[in-house]
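User:
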Amino acid sequence: MYRLILLDDEQIVLDSIKKVFDFEEFGFSLEGMFSNPLKALEQLEDIAPHLIITDIKMPGLDGLEFTSKAKDLLPETEVVIMSGHGDFEYAQTAVRLGVSDYLLKPISKKMFSDMLGVVKKKLDEKQEQAEYVENLKKMVDAVYRGEDETKEEKKYSQNITSAVEYIKEHYSENISLGDVAAYTCLNKNYLADLFRKELDTTFVNYLTGIRIDQAKRYLKETDLKMYEISYSVGYSDYAYFSTLFKKHTGQTLSQFRKS
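Assistant: Predicted structure:
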């Protein structure tokens, strides 16, 4: 099932699309609906959608600007723009940004359904290619190590193992999914999928868990001040770190240190 998010500044439009379409029939899971594009950007890497469907006219950040920023974060994500503008310049910009489709309003149910079918097929082809490359890498690794393929069976894939090692070495830095993807030579969406499939969590949640565990060790084993611990585990904003720690442990930093 491919992850999908919807953006439109009119909530009634979002609700209508959700009501009319059973996205699971098309192979998509609706992971979020946003009327504020800035909030969508904040959650983009954590959701790592395979498809974004966005209106072009939104306050604060229009659909084209949002697409540009989204593509910077997740280059492999497919984007479809809905617009009431037939202006060639809008369409030209959309093409330059690499959008999958540009739907002119009013959009018929058939037009929308056809678009979902086309994008689903494209995503299937990309996934097949990614799996082929992954299997090829495994075969090459097996030959290189002189092992039989029947003996490659491990709890986690080499990609996830490498990703975890990188996170454990760099958790105190301002790392992103993109940094880990670059290190493992994978695209962001594929790596996000691996985190979900093999570790049953998201990249952000996994990184947060590593940081919280390390903070616990600092609290119990050192005399570092609270703000020093916050900085040491990758959070420059002490207030945010303090709130996050309580959310994950049920205790404040002081309570945990005294317990």
